[in-house]
Predict the structure.
Amino acid sequence: MSTKRILITGCTGLLGETLIRKSPRNISWIGVDVRQSPICNELSKFINVDITDCDSLDEKLVEEDFDGIVHLAGFIHIDQNTPSNVDQLFDVNTKGTLNVIKLMEKRNKALFVYASSMTVYGLPVENPVEESHPLNPNSFYGLTKLMGEQIVKLYSTQKSLSTAILRFPGLFGENKEKGAIYHFCDNAASGKPIKINTQGLGYWSCLHYEDAADAIMTVCMDPPFPGLPAVYNVTDGEEWDLLRVAGIVANEAQDEVDVEVDTPPDFKRCRLSGENLKSRYPSLQFNTSDRIIRMARFFQNKK
């Protein structure tokens, strides 16, 4: 089997690290990021460069040859209304995406995988949310990811690239030390109540990092036809909400753990449809419930 040489941006993030560690031996990774981490030792090459700096990106990659790009680099911040954060969202998620996909044009390469987000939909107007759902982001993050998608679509159709846009829900995993599921598992393992606060939460869904990495790798090994990008929700197709997750985590606790709801769980529910992904890649199987149980037990064993 021939080796594929793939450029991966955001290689030191949790999704990048997971993807690199799970990938088959016939994938050779060129990692691009603004920081180094131990995962860089598993790359064929690491390039320290900021994707928002087009000139530096071109200069440092001018002699690199690769078969495609997995674009994971992105910026997100809980406070999306601070001017400096807004500027960085547009710089990294929009301008950075443009700079990265231009590398494809200069090398006449075909494969481009873009990690997008369910936030491009905004508040769901119908469930399940299919890829054809109206795109009305209600956050700066969602807006910048949508603008990134539009850049990818334009380049893909004009340059006849083989492109996949993968819309991920919130990702969780044992090594992600933030987010609702992390705090649920940490509290339960410590014998503390699991507290749910949905204030300001419009909608929510989740997927484990390993499942997200499996989806990316599957697309890399069997890419879409050139031209119009293939757009997929990456999900198990179930409806997830915080109460359901909290209940699963509480059931795995060694001692009885209370679930406290600080505000009514009346946020808009969202169930992403995964039918398109399942139809194209039937070998992909996600079991989010089992992943949550595994994570809760991981925390129990750590205490």
About this structure: The chain has a mean pLDDT of 90. The first helix runs from residue 14 to 22. Residues 168 and 208 are 10 Å apart (CA to CA).
